[in-house]
Design a protein that fits this description.
By secondary structure, this protein is α+β, with helices and mostly antiparallel strands. The protein has 12 helices and 16 strands. The strands form 4 sheets. A 6-stranded antiparallel β-sheet has the order 12-1-2-14-15-16. A 6-stranded antiparallel β-sheet has the order 7-8-9-10-11-13, covered by helices on one side. Strands 3-6 form a two-stranded antiparallel ribbon.
């Protein structure tokens, strides 16, 4: 499943807004980058590939980028921005409690996690509009499963959690706080008269009250969300760990779900802090499964091998949207991977980033990065340090190159927009290909070292 982090603009060191999520499923599902141009003659109907779900679509579609699952093309886009600069990530898996599902069960023919992205993002002009469209679809068609979904634009970030088959709550992210979630609904408060900060299905409170799903003041988590023994080791530790990293001054009990929904960081958060969180595995402690070679560690880390991709959507509203909207994406296992900047203004990707199946293959960027992690995991303590060092150096180099490119872009885009686009496209292509080249070098270095290690064990020398 997934981990989510949202950071408001006043909590970020540079004033940007962040929505970040790891997609944790199975390591053999490749991520492929895709871009779909705007059209007035788009598909009139969405047909789910793996469920009965169907819904009509507007013919006019905005251009948009997507991190697609290899087995679901033009279906599960996961994360990206549309051509107006609205960002979306789908989805964080969450669960409703049994009492709710007995009364309002999930709808098998309704909206599933893998159906949401392509029926919402290409058709909305703001984050708020994205929430309204998704909420209306949930009420009309029902949800097939539990999910949390984010929308962001130049002005705000919204996060929606569904509940049972037909209900939902969305909240506007406070600008001076951050929000962390790990496969569990986090929301508590809902103010029905505060339309600036809350949106919800019309009967969210009255229906829960009618069925006696909460006591006292309305509490969304108490009324609708699942609490189980598994949460105590699978979900709580991730939220606890993220809050401990960003707000070490506040002490919380990892065993008790009393973590603040929104927390204030002790110091302004940087993009590097966000990357670090998605590489987090209780590093150096007794709960570090990789340091101790312990796959049965009960505390589930943020960074796990079966992550398909981690994406950090960033909005910098003071810049043109083409460079002000960024997706820092790491393919595969983030702890042994590299975050690469994908700019909203880019309209194509090197072919290696657009291919991948459920079987390792030459010429697939996903599988090249996956090979680096898989080979390094044969002896994490021996191989991880030099992989991390090499990728860290390249991330630092990329960061400097980004600054230089963005300065050049700003000098061009008003008077020479096409030239600015071409420059941005060339920069992106070169950066992505350079990262792939470094990963290929690491594969060969790792394979060489592993070969030498095996030889040392099975040498049978003495002649």
């Amino acid at each position: 499943m997934c981990t989510t982090l949202i950071v408001g603009s006043k909590a970020m060191a540079d004033g940007s807004r962040i929505y970040a999520r790891s997609d944790d499923s199975t390591s053999i599902k490749a991520t492929r980058l895709a871009y779909y141009p705007a059209t007035k003659y788009g598909p009139k109907e969405f047909k789910a590939m793996d469920s009965p779900f169907r819904c009509p679509l507007p013919e006019e579609r905005l251009g948009f980028s997507a991190l697609e699952r290899e087995d679901l093309p033009y279906h599960w886009g996961e994360a990206g921005f549309n051509s107006l600069g609205v960002g979306m990530s789908a989805t964080e898996t969450i669960f409703s409690k049994k009492e709710v599902l007995d009364l309002d069960p999930y709808v098998p023919s309704g909206l599933a996690e893998n159906s949401v992205y392509h029926i919402v993002l290409p058709y909305v002009r703001t984050a708020r509009e994205g929430v309204k469209r998704l909420g209306g679809l949930i009420e009309e068609y029902g949800s097939a499963e539990g999910f949390g979904i984010a929308f962001m634009d130049a002005d705000e970030v919204w996060y929606l959690e569904n509940a049972g088959g037909h209900r939902w709550l969305a909240c506007r992210m406070p600008e001076d706080k951050y929000f962390a979630s790990g496969n569990q609904s986090r929301y508590r408060e809902y103010k029905s008269n505060d339309h600036r900060n809350f949106m919800a299905s019309k009967d969210l409170v009255s229906w829960a009250k009618e069925h006696e799903l909460f006591k006292g003041e309305f509490d969304f988590h108490e009324a609708y969300s699942l609490e189980s023994e598994n949460d105590k080791t699978y979900n709580y530790p991730r939220v606890w760990g993220i809050q401990k990293k960003l707000t070490p001054s506040v002490k919380t009990d990892v065993r008790v779900n009393k973590f603040p929904v929104y927390q204030t960081p002790d110091k302004p958060v940087t993009i590097e802090d966000v990357k670090d969180i998605f590489r987090f595995h209780y590093d150096g402690t007794a709960h570090d499964p990789y340091l101790h070679n312990n796959p049965k560690e009960p505390y589930r880390p943020v960074s796990i091998f079966r992550t398909i991709n981690t994406h950090i959507l960033q909005v910098r509203p003071w810049l043109p949207k083409e460079i002000g909207r960024l997706d820092y994406m790491a393919e595969g296992f983030a702890d042994l991977g590299i975050f690469l900047p994908l700019y909203q203004g880019v309209t194509s990707y090197p072919v290696e980033y657009t291919v991948g199946t459920k079987h390792s293959q030459q010429g697939s960027a996903y599988w090249t990065f996956r090979k680096v992690a898989a080979l390094a995991m044969t002896d994490y303590n021996k191989y991880a340090p030099f992989v991390k060092e090499r990728f860290a150096a390249l991330e630092a180099e990329n960061s400097q190159r980004q600054k230089e490119m963005e300065e050049e872009y700003l000098s061009l885009y008003e008077e020479h927009p096409m030239l600015a686009h071409d420059m941005l496209q060339d920069f992106s292509d070169n950066l992505l290909l350079r990262a792939l080249s470094v990963a290929e070098e690491l594969v060969e270095e790792l394979f060489t070292r592993i070969t030498m290690d095996i030889e040392a064990v099975y040498k049978f020398h003495g002649a």
